[in-house]
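Pasting as-is:
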Amino acid sequence: MTAITIRPFRSDDAAAVRDLFIRVNRLLAPAEMKEAFEAYIQRSLEEEVDRITEYYAERNGRFWVAVDDRALVGMFGLEPSEEDAMELRRMYVDPQSRKQGIARQMLRFAEDECRRRNRLTMHLSTSELQSAALALYRNSGYVLVREETATKASNKTLGGGIRRYHFTKAL
């Protein structure tokens, strides 16, 4: 496992968070969906990523970054989804830093944060394009509660017929 520090997002993290979000989503984009992904990226930047502090404050949530001794290597946010639950959002690991346990460390941190806030359920979703994330969530005790074919685009989903998987876990 790589030694990382997870800390709250700061304004000087904005450029690195933006870059990581764009890079990961461009890597996920199948060739036939490049245009749809670019539209999703733009919408997500405008509505959320380029205004992380305000976005999460408006929702009583928080956003964190994972850093090692040289750079930002991961990120994630939490926002309330129900009275006693939080939703994990925007969990990404830098492609060059994968397979080092960083996502597992961030997931554990997010679960601990939910417990600290007395929100004893965590919800999350991911797409069929993110097989490593699907495996992580299943191996971490998350239960699949529904699948859907996302047709409508938002800052939470590309739409475009991508299969989405929604999970939950009692903490």
